[in-house]
Amino acid sequence: MDSERIHSSPQCPPSSSPAWFTEAGSPHHRLQWQVTRTLYAGDSPYQHIEVLETEQFGTALVLDGILQTTAADEYIYHEMLALVPLLSHPHPARVLIIGGGDGGLAREVLRVPGVQDVVMVEIDRAVVEVARKFLPHHTAALDDPRLTIRYEDGVQYVAALDAADAFDVILVDATDPEGDGPGQVLYTTEFHRAIRAALLPEGVYAQQSGTPIYNPDVLTRVAHDVDREFPVCRVYWCTVPTYPGSLFTFTMGSLGPEPLVPIRRLPHGAPTRWYTPRIHAAAFALPPVVAELLPERVAAAQA
Length: 303
Fold this sequence. Notes:
- It is a single chain.
- This protein has nine helices and twelve strands.
- The chain has helices spanning 74-86, 104-109, 125-134, 154-159, 189-197, 216-229, 277-282, 288-291, 296-301, and strands at residues 19-26, 29-43, 48-54, 58-63, 66-70, 94-99, 117-121, 147-150, 167-173, 199-210, 232-239, 247-254.
- It has a seven-stranded mixed sheet with strand order 8-7-6-9-10-12-11, with helices on both faces. The protein has a five-stranded antiparallel sheet with strand order 1-2-3-4-5, covered by helices on one side.
């Protein structure tokens, strides 16, 4: 998809009732957002892409009918996925992002002191092009000279790495594994094994592992995989208002650092809207309903 083909759709015609975007949280529960207009709708080789202007949360990116990120609350997810692992690592110089085509994760990674080289591997070029046009705050760092964007399959990229190409930190910002979307293969045992092999000594990995309210099997599967492959597995969480259930988890694997408390800080005065060192530590305190989904030694380490 060429950037010239990305264009704004006309505002939705007036109606006696508002337009609503609806997403199924589960077979028995739906979420809705009032939509003022559709900014973009089109198909890439991998998925259907929409950009909606919502009344409550501003611009929203939707992939295959699932809301991925909004201008109003994206900072929660992106700060937590980036800053918790990077500030748990003593020297996160080289960082790999799998997915993350909306640009928000790269923006947060590049704020961390010591980060020298970031590779973002996004399978769908169209997502990046659409985000550049309609989500400028998300994509503010995509032209940073420390960032390289590669448009290819993340699983194949990781599998082809050798020791000379290893990373300090690997972050996976993927769509959910349900359905036929491109994110499915990023939740497999083979992928987690390849991730470990692609990390330098003391390396840290983190991946979104969904909501334990509606998709507990995703968290359980990822946590058990990571616990088998890594000497340290930890799970943390935050609340994202636009995600089903709001309670959202991340799973970490570490080859050395214990991530329960940060060992580094952002520069004095660096603004965050959600993350703080105290939030970092508190995020590893698990409600029993989440802990019961995890391997016993992981839950015990975080009790």
